[in-house]
Amino acid sequence: MRLNTISDKADARRDRKRVGRGPGSGIGRTAGRGMKGQTSRSGVAINGFEGGQMPLYRRLPKRGFNKPNRLDWNEVNLGRVQAAIDAKKLDAKKVVDLEALMAAGLVSKERDGVRLLGKGELKAKVKFAVAHATKAAAAAVEKAGGSIDIIERKPKPSAKNDAGKK
């Protein structure tokens, strides 16, 4: 096989349908929209309209609350930390913080900091520097002989605060 012989399967790519281009095209005049009325014109907004009946989204009760300033943690379980130490991706002798976890591939983005969870078993003596840790995680780390330093998180600049400064 050569690169210059590679091609798409037949009908893999189709040209865009050009509607309203005369009777010879087969989709001229009304362009497949039927006759007159709201749906034949642009700007139709009838999704969710049920012919005057109370729509489903209004029949169902509202529930819950979305906190506007909720923190978005990078959650890391102790079992995954131990697996990274066993695989030599993390050095147990150094402080395990956000940068070390990102380098080991346990965390992908910075977010609001690292939250240590207690799932799994930690055997290594590790010193953590994280933004938050659960009680179970703190107990497991201290049982293994390690320690946890809770660090203050840096507030991310929000879009609301930046809008007035420009």
3D structure, described in words:
With 166 residues, the protein is of the alpha/beta class. It is 20% helix and 12% strand. It has 2 domains: 20-62, no CATH class; 74-150, Ribosomal Protein L15, Chain: K, domain 2, CATH 3.100.10.10. The chain is built from 5 helices and 6 strands, in the order H-E-H-E-H-E-E-E-H-E-H. The longest helix has 9 residues, at 78-86.
CATH architecture of the largest domain: Ribosomal Protein L15, Chain: K, domain 2
Return the string of H and E elements.
HEHEHEEEHEH
Give the termini distance in whole angstroms: 57 Å
Roughly what fraction of the amino acids lie in strands?
5-15%
- The quaternary structure here is single chain
Helix percent reads 10-25%
Output the CATH topology of the largest domain: Ribosomal Protein L15, Chain: K, domain 2
SS-derived structural category: alpha/beta
Q: What does the main sheet amount to?
A: 3 strands, parallel
Average pLDDT value?
A: 88
Poorly predicted runs are none
Q: What form results from the Cα inertia axes?
A: elongated
Q: How many strand units? A: 6
Strand order of the largest sheet: 1-3-5
What's the alpha carbon Rg, rounded to whole Å? 29 Å
Helix run count: 5
What is the count of structural domains? 2
Name of the CATH first level of the largest domain? Alpha Beta
